Amino acid sequence: MSKAGRTSEEIAARVKALESMMIEQGLVTTEMVDHYAEIYENEVGPQLGAKVVAKAWVDPDFKARLLDDAPAACAELGIGGIQGEHMVVLEDTADVHHAIVCTLCSCYPWPVLGPPPNWYKDPQYRSRMIREPRTVLAEEFGYDVDESREIRVWDSSSEIRYWVLPVRPVGTDGWTEEQLMALVSRDSMIGVAPVEAVS
Ligand code: FE
What we know:
Blueprint: H1 8-24, H2 30-58, H3 60-68, H4 70-76, E1 87-91, E2 96-101, H5 110-113, H6 118-121, H7 123-131, H8 133-141, E3 150-155, E4 161-165, H9 177-181, H10 186-190
Parallel strand pairs: 1-4, 2-3
């Protein structure tokens, strides 16, 4: 249940109803709605997660707090809210790569990643990612995780919403938080893309 006492399904239904009404009345077009949804999925939302990741990379004490209690650590940066009350951050290492999925529906940490992309809600992704993550990452996302690394897939729910703290790329010593933040994509925090330092 949300703070307002509504489930996310009820909220989604209300949003859909409002959207239909506004389109019918000619106030917005489907294209406009898609356009803004895309901005939130790809840019505005994930920038908050990227900010958290960059801070964790430069501040070991913050990282420890983040891994211990993600909602509290995010709140230090003024980040939090609905669909983010029970977030758990998983730290990637040289040996382990984490990825997230919601096999039941599309549970996702909205305050740090924005709304989930369509493919995250796709039944194909939801079922295959659990069964054969290495293949899905390679075939669907072009991400070849090194054979030496174990892949762990975490099934999110409304009780626990996972997201990933990727490995800080080599060659970024001395970078500022802003520079680091720019490297962190939405997909890297879902665990379907690497973070790479571009030179
Ligand atoms: Fe779900």
